[in-house]
Known about the structure:
Elements: H1 2-58, H2 61-68, H3 72-113, H4 117-135, H5 140-162
Helix pairs in contact: 1-3, 1-4, 1-5, 4-5
Amino acid sequence: MVGFDERFAEVKKRLARKQHLEGLMESLQEQYSDLLARVLELREQKEKEQKDVDRLERGSLSSFFLNLAGKKEEKLEKEEKEAYLAAVKCDAAEKELTAVEAQIDSNGKALIELADCETEYEDLLEEKRAAIAEQGLSGLDDIIKAEKKLFKLEKEKVEILNFNPNSSS
C-alpha cells in the first residue's frame, strides 16, 4: 500500500495546484476585464489630448485668438503636458494588461497539464480498492470512504487558504 500512498500524495498535490490555479484564473479574468476597460478609456483620453495639441499647433480659430492674446504658448505647453501624462498612463495600463494576459496564458497551459487529475485520483481509488479486495482485507468500503473524505477535506482546506477577503464578490 506504500506505493499507493506516494501516488495519492502526488495526485493530491496536483489537484490542489489545479484548484488553486482555477481560483487564480477567475481572479485574473476579472482583472483582465477591468484593465481592458481602463486601457480603452485611457486610449480615448490620450487621443483627445493629442487632438487638443494638434488643433493648437495647426492653427485653429481658438489658436489664432490665443496667439493674439499671447497665451498660445502657455496653452500649448499645458495641452502637451496633459497629452504626455495621458500617454504615460495609457502605456502603463497596456503593460499591465499584457502582463495579466501572460499570466492567464501561463496558468491556462498549467491547467491543461493538470486536466486529468480528478480521473487519475478516481483511478487510483479503484486500483486501491481492487488491491485491498485482492488481499482479502476487511473494511474496504471504510478505507475508500475515509480516502474520499480526506480528499474532500483537503480540497476545502485549499479553498480556505486561497480565500481572499479583499476580492470583490
